[in-house]
Design brief:
Helix content: 10-25%
Shape: elongated
Number of helices: 7
Strand order of the largest sheet: 10-11-13-14-16-17-18-19
Distance between the termini: 23 Å
Largest sheet: 8 strands, antiparallel, barrel
Radius of gyration: 26 Å
Strand content: 25-35%
Structural class: alpha+beta
Order of helices and strands: EEEEHEEEEEHHHHEEEEEEEHHEEE
């Protein structure tokens, strides 16, 4: 059975400033980096050829650091009074201090040129300000790990830099009309509500500004916005099928293989058609639950399974829903991981090859994404059964608990 991969679209690193007592930095999959951070100060500025030295001494980093001076032409409406006053007193100058980031998202001192932006770079910038006591030479100071400026070549992986861009003033006005996001919150429902409010605001803005909505980056934000709004509620769906399963793979002419599966609580991606032959529907028909796999219960993941993973799929609407049972069309895609796991057992090499053959036959063009079924009984039991392609056997199982891994 084929499955949809969880799409990680626009990925830029965003952060919070270093404090005197430690680091509150974090990496986040937030489109356009700090432009979505409600703590950011947004302004239109031009990079100068001037730099200024400073020194960092805290538990995050230690050593010399240099910042580039940016001349501010216009501050966003949400700029604090303290920063407005400081910009006025500094004759419109602010400092942007570049940082590097390790693979674990920990900040390290920037070793390159302090002239981070090419002098003359002009556009909308958005950064989080340091606490006032750590400003350089009394100028508002911003720590940065990405060259966030629009229009800008650094966004060419998302938007063609040769496309028709709005002016910096128009871009700033667009962002100022968008509701804030709860940046960095672990509350998935709160994030969903804020993100959905922003999607709706983008759609309404586009209706009022049809010409500007065709320019970048607004065009990028508004792509497929109606479908985004319609599909977004599924992001907070708590699947009634989620939990921990004990399953058995029964292959024709081979010993049964017992394994365990633990799913996430919410969909990792949506199912848009029932089979490889069917056309993609306008709205989701079902969903995939990312799943971790192990040969013993204690080895199942408690958090996101980076290895030995698969998917449990199900349609949203039950095929049967009566007093004595509820039946969902369902399917499980675990063959690749299961083949790798059995290959590590010297006595199971033949089974591993058979599982690989099943995977290849399952990915034929007309395969069903939900070839099996999951049945819920009045006593709370969930029983799974999926016949294998070409009559090679079946997978059966039962949910043994409602424990899911942490998403």
């Amino acid at each position: 059975m084929a499955f949809l991969r969880l799409a990680l679209g626009l990925t830029l690193i965003a952060f919070a400033p270093v404090t005197a007592h430690g680091a509150t930095w974090f990496c986040s999959l937030v489109p356009y980096g700090s432009f979505y951070n409600p703590k950011s100060t947004m302004f239109i500025g031009t990079a100068t050829a001037d730099s200024i030295p400073s020194r960092i001494d805290n538990d995050t980093a230690s050593g010399p650091a240099y910042g580039q001076i940016i001349r501010v032409e216009k501050l966003g409406r949400q700029t604090s009074d303290a920063i407005r006053k400081a910009v006025r007193l500094s004759s419109g100058r602010v400092v942007v201090v570049p940082w590097s980031v390790r693979s674990d998202c920990h900040p390290v001192l920037w070793k390159g040129s302090a002239i981070w932006f090419t002098p003359g770079t002009h556009g909308v910038m958005a950064y989080v300000a340091r606490p006032r006591e750590r400003w350089i030479a009394g100028m508002p100071t911003f720590d940065a790990v990405t060259r966030d400026v629009m229009p800008g070549a650094q966004f060419s992986r998302f938007v063609d830099i040769a496309a028709d861009w709005a002016t910096p003033e128009e871009i700033l006005s667009f962002f100022e009309e968008m509701p804030p996001l709860p940046y960095g919150t672990a509350d998935k429902v709160a994030r969903f509500k804020a993100e959905q409010a922003r999607r709706i605001a983008i759609r309404e803005w586009a209706k009022k500004h049809p010409r500007l909505s065709r320019l970048e980056p607004m065009n990028r934000y508004g792509q497929n916005i109606d479908k985004q709004i319609a599909v977004a509620p599924y992001d907070t769906l708590r699947s009634p099928l989620a939990g921990t399963y004990r399953m058995t793979l029964e292959l024709r002419g081979a010993e049964p293989v017992t394994f365990y599966v633990r799913t996430g609580l919410r969909p990792s991606s949506m199912l848009w058609s029932e089979s490889g032959r069917a056309s993609r529907s306008e709205f989701p028909l079902g969903y995939y639950l990312l799943s971790g796999i192990a040969f013993d219960h204690d080895s199942l993941p408690a958090v996101f399974p980076y290895r030995q993973q698969g998917y449990l799929a199900a349609l949203l609407d039950p095929r049967i829903d009566v007093r004595d049972s509820t039946v969902w069309r369902s399917g499980i895609e675990i063959f690749r991981s299961l083949a790798q796991m059995t290959a590590q057992r010297p006595s199971s090499s033949g089974i591993s090859q058979a599982i690989q053959a099943i995977e290849r036959s399952s990915f034929s063009g007309s395969m069903s994404y939900v070839p099996g079924e999951l049945v819920r009984y009045p006593d709370g039991r969930f029983v799974f059964r999926q016949p294998l392609a070409l009559g090679q056997g079946e997978i059966t199982g039962e949910r043994i608990s409602t424990v899911t891994f942490q998403q």
